[in-house]
Design goal:
Blueprint: H1 5-10, E1 16-17, H2 19-25, H3 30-37, H4 41-48, H5 56-66, E2 74-75, E3 81-88, E4 94-103, E5 111-116, E6 128-132, E7 145-151, E8 157-163, E9 172-176, E10 184-187, E11 189-199
Parallel strand pairs: 3-5
Antiparallel strand pairs: 1-2, 3-4, 5-6, 6-11, 7-8, 7-11, 8-9, 9-10
Helix pairs in contact: 3-4
Length: 202
């Protein structure tokens, strides 16, 4: 997981960035963008060309200036793209949004990512959570783990997956991480994806 200050500051060191792309799209000069985030045109040029470390602080300022999420500024050529499934609201339920993808090396066979609209448990608003989607024959690997999981007749939710009653074969109980949301008992699953990585910019 991306958790420590040094991890967050070093996240960009092996990545290309898309600062120039977004600046050109918005018809901003180096001077325009520099004034917007409180720096010099020379610094913007160095950031665009990878001559200066693009720390988390820079990412947040630039993302605010472009009205995008910080992850949209990062690019890893020749890395696997991960589908961004949608936005998780305060009830912990995944809401669909316009399909998008971002690029990141993740230790996953079938990665799936979501973005949080609000704080849920120890996760903060804006965090990107990356999950590894399991095949239905391997759902037991989700037990006692934070997951994005969905009952066969419901929407995916951010939850803890636990074993159901012993008499219910292939059934699970989903305990939502969002407070005030009821657990779903003894259900079969259409999706189980354990959390493998958290990317936080704050």
């Amino acid at each position: 997981m991306v958790g420590s200050t040094s991890d967050r500051q070093d996240i960009d060191r092996h990545m290309e960035n898309r600062i120039r792309k977004f600046r050109k799209q918005r018809e901003m000069t180096l001077t325009d963008l520099a004034a917007k985030i409180g720096t010099t045109p020379q610094s913007i040029s160095r950031l665009e060309n990878g001559l200066m470390t693009l720390s988390t602080g820079w990412l947040v300022k630039l993302a605010d200036a472009f009205h995008i999420h910080p992850t949209d500024l990062l690019e890893q050529p020749d890395r696997e793209t991960i589908p961004l499934a949608g936005l998780i609201g305060e009830d912990g339920v995944l809401r669909d949004q316009q399909p998008s993808r971002f690029t990141l090396e993740a230790p996953s066979i079938d990665p799936l990512a979501v973005r949080l609209a609000t704080q849920i448990g120890n996760f903060q608003a804006g965090d990107v959570l990356i999950f590894d989607r399991l095949q239905n024959t391997a759902y037991d690997h989700a037990l006692d783990r934070d997951c994005l999981a969905a009952p066969v007749d419901g929407s995916p939710i951010l939850c803890r997956v636990i074993a159901a009653e012993p008499t219910r074969s292939s059934a699970y109980t989903l305990v939502p991480l969002a407070s005030g949301t009821l657990s779903i008992h003894n259900t079969q699953l259409s999706l189980a994806a354990p959390l493998i990585m958290r990317i936080s910019f704050f």
